[in-house]
UniProtKB/TrEMBL annotation, chains A, B:
<keyword id="KW-0274">FAD</keyword>
<dbReference type="GO" id="GO:0009435">
    <property type="term" value="P:NAD+ biosynthetic process"/>
</dbReference>
<keyword id="KW-0285">Flavoprotein</keyword>
<comment type="function">
    <text>Catalyzes the hydroxylation of L-kynurenine (L-Kyn) to form 3-hydroxy-L-kynurenine (L-3OHKyn). Required for synthesis of quinolinic acid.</text>
</comment>
<keyword id="KW-0560">Oxidoreductase</keyword>
<comment type="similarity">
    <text>Belongs to the aromatic-ring hydroxylase family. KMO subfamily.</text>
</comment>
<dbReference type="GO" id="GO:0070189">
    <property type="term" value="P:kynurenine metabolic process"/>
</dbReference>
<dbReference type="InterPro" id="IPR027545">
    <property type="entry name" value="Kynurenine_monooxygenase"/>
</dbReference>
<dbReference type="GO" id="GO:0006569">
    <property type="term" value="P:L-tryptophan catabolic process"/>
</dbReference>
<keyword id="KW-0521">NADP</keyword>
<dbReference type="GO" id="GO:0019805">
    <property type="term" value="P:quinolinate biosynthetic process"/>
</dbReference>
<protein>
    <recommendedName>
        <fullName>Kynurenine 3-monooxygenase</fullName>
        <ecNumber>1.14.13.9</ecNumber>
    </recommendedName>
</protein>
<dbReference type="GO" id="GO:0043420">
    <property type="term" value="P:anthranilate metabolic process"/>
</dbReference>
<dbReference type="InterPro" id="IPR036188">
    <property type="entry name" value="FAD/NAD-bd_sf"/>
</dbReference>
<keyword id="KW-0662">Pyridine nucleotide biosynthesis</keyword>
<dbReference type="GO" id="GO:0004502">
    <property type="term" value="F:kynurenine 3-monooxygenase activity"/>
</dbReference>
<comment type="pathway">
    <text>Cofactor biosynthesis; NAD(+) biosynthesis; quinolinate from L-kynurenine: step 1/3.</text>
</comment>
Length: 452, 452
């Protein structure tokens, strides 16, 4: 057991709330600050992508026994529903029984705050943190950036305040702090498929729906109330872009032409399109993540990624699992806890950033590509024959808690192998053969040999 | 001629001062702000690496007729003097008559401020800019960050305020602003070789002196007063590092062992070592560099690089040459001027960042490596025979004003060719042969063919 500390968590989002539960269980006093009002008192909407909880997320929730409470508001999705212009394909995500889970960000955040309060964490909403004194773990709080500030001293401060973290902002001004932020030229906009009058879903609720169109795509994830949260990803400028959709007519024509089967299910298309903001997507990396035994960043505050692998929240929750392991291992030595936490997590955060960045192409282009679908079929066929020799990349990321770095490295090896295999003459006809099976086995063996 | 504008330049360093001269020549009112006192009134020292002015720098200075005034305080260096532990080698930088020029940063900065004042720019020292309103080109000035601020409105604001630019700091908080800062694990420390009693130099003043030792190195550049400014580059931590040199004895033993011929010429070694700070080295990249027709970053404020190619100041001065070309081309259309300026300069800034980063290895390791010295000899021999076909990378960067991007690309091609050539059996003996000449010609031809 650790000596009880007085700990501030800045940010009452998903990671901040779950972290608070872990810290309470370890016996600490926990104050959570957020610049926004209590999300439980307000309407939350307009710029959210539904979350896809997977193994890493569940592990962190179950680690403090709150997984089942979250399962109540989650809908399993065991496959992709790929809406081509003229047909609908399905592609399973994993083995029988493996699913990712659609959860509304607002619903989950409200639930997590309730759970953190029940665990004894104290929340302070509409409290703006403008600065932090790193060496003293002291927060500077006030109405405005240039107005009067109040000081609150803690033993430890966690920055769980997202991609534009104020806590990190102060650390950035230290020497030797590495930092990068890179925006995609793709933006996103939230749209909505309402429930049927009887409360049922208009599309299959157990599918992750994608309309892949190359440089842009539409996705839809189910909600408990029968609706779907849709997200349109599209370049800001260029041939198919937000810049060209200037009025209702433009938007309606664009959807009729490119997403014909969405027209009937998105009744308030143009209205929502112009009401909801067009949001940006950023990859943010930094290092170090901690300052002595005083300050630690966690979640998006130290590794914001693009959403195309559905791993942002899962990676943030996994930060907490690893931090918790370090707390158990190093007891009261918080400098060691923080140092081992950042060393362990940084390479994995970089790996999932890379995988997420790459996956836009997979989702928006490759899911509509015959060669890619063939590759997936061959992988699945081989994996069924040799489950010990071939776990697909998606499963390594999504249905496993092995390090992301391992998934990235093995995924690259597998892709190189499949590139070779797809060069086989007449592969479309001969893939289900002993010849191909042996070819893959040989190539796998060669990769192994190189490593040893 | 442009319509006169009221322009603020933030930063009275080398780039800010030269930019002010260009803007004055174009007829604008120019106010230069700096948070520090007037460098002409104070002792400047302790964390400077002497500058190496080369072609791009001279071109920008000569463009407004101030080159000759700067030549008065510059010392030509036509070669490297490579101090190995047991011998001294020399290596020419370019062709007969080609030199880089050693200038003390303090001397040059004082001269540039004098020249800018003579051109009619007005300086405001000890004026701290804390913020800028981008859309209004308004500076916010005050004693302290949290104290009272005064507003100064301009037509245009230039941020020439270095790697930790306050102007960029505000732009960073805009959406879609890409940014990265990456520190090297190598620090540097200024040391000094004083003049002889008669005012002469203790080492050859027309050489750039290097003591290459692999992961660390010492350099020395001459000053007008007979002294040399030395810089020790070394890892912060590890086997040979600043961390291990904790007291006078450590420093003296380290220098005796590793830089034996420096001992006699650096009399205040330990004193300076502990008086002068250990400084950090950062590569900073960002984009965009401008905001509408109101704000532009220039020099280190938008592309801080490590000093190993001696191009930091030269690249900053070249920014001004390009900006000036755009001013001539687009007249009063400042939005166009800024947009074309940033589009033209960004790839070149990235290229010199990459070249500078790579050059640490060249300076600290390769200059002591026989294979590398042989490569340089072969390149020089071939280049003398075919001056139209082979301009060495160093010359492309240093003695040319062709784009850095071109130097980087051609340099990579040349390196690939030389890698092939060095594989030739018994190359040490046969390099000066028709066979090798033909081999290089063939490889060059193949590279050309690929491109067309």
């Amino acid at each position: 057991m650790q000596t009880p500390k007085k700990i501030a968590v800045v940010g009452s989002g998903l990671v901040g709330s779950l972290l608070a539960i872990y810290l309470r269980r370890a016996g600490h006093t926990v104050h959570i600050y957020d610049r926004s009002p209590d999300i439980r008192q307000i309407q939350f909407s307009g710029r959210s992508i539904n979350l896809a909880m997977s193994t890493r997320g569940w592990k962190a929730l179950d680690g403090v026994g709150v997984g089942d409470s979250v399962r109540e508001i989650a809908i399993p999705m065991d496959k992709r529903a790929i809406h081509l212009v003229d047909k609908l394909n399905f592609q399973n995500y994993g083995q029988e029984g493996e699913s990712i889970y659609s959860i509304s960000r607002g619903d989950l955040n409200r639930r997590m705050i309730d759970l953190a309060e029940q665990a004894g964490a104290e929340f302070f909403f509409e409290q703006k943190i403008w600065d932090v004194t790193l060496s003293e773990a002291t927060l500077h709080i006030g109405e405005t950036e240039r107005g009067a500030w109040e000081e609150k001293k803690y033993d430890i401060v966690f920055g769980a305040d997202g991609a534009f973290s104020r806590i990190r902002h102060r650390m950035q001004r230290q020497s030797m702090f590495n930092y990068s932020q890179e925006f995609l030229n793709i933006g996103y906009k939230e749209l909505n498929i309402p429930a049927n009058p009887d409360g049922s879903h208009k599309l299959d609720k157990n599918s992750f729906h994608i309309w892949p169109r190359g440089e842009y795509m539409l996705i839809a994830l189910s909600n408990l109330d029968g609706s779907f949260t849709c997200t349109l990803f599209m370049p800001f400028e260029g041939e198919n872009s937000f810049a060209l959709l200037e009025n209702r007519k433009d938007v309606e024509l664009f959807f009729e032409k490119n997403f014909p089967d969405s027209i009937d299910v998105i009744p308030k298309l143009a209205e929502d399109f112009f009401k909801n903001p067009t949001s940006t997507l950023v990859t943010m990396k930094c290092y170090p993540w901690t300052y002595k035994d005083k300050i630690a960043l966690i979640g998006d505050a130290c590794h914001a990624i693009v959403p195309f692998y559905g791993q942002g929240m899962n990676a943030g929750f996994e930060d907490i699992s690893i931090l918790s392991e370090m707390m158990e291992e190093y007891g009261d030595d918080w400098e060691m806890i923080f140092s081992e936490y950042e060393k362990s997590r940084k390479p994995n955060a970089d790996a999932i950033a890379e995988l997420s960045y790459r996956n836009f192409m997979e989702m928006s282009s490759k899911t509509a590509d015959d060669k890619f679908l063939l590759q997936k079929k061959i992988e699945k066929w081989f994996s069924d024959k040799h489950p010990d020799k071939w776990i697909p990349l998606y499963s390594r990321v999504t249905f496993s808690d092995r390090p992301y770095t391992e998934a990235l490295a093995i995924g690259d090896d597998q892709n190189a192998i499949m590139e070779e295999v797809l060069k086989t003459e007449n592969i479309e006809a001969v893939w289900e053969s002993k010849e191909i099976e042996n070819k893959i086995l040989t190539l796998l063996h060669e990769k192994e040999a190189v490593k040893n």
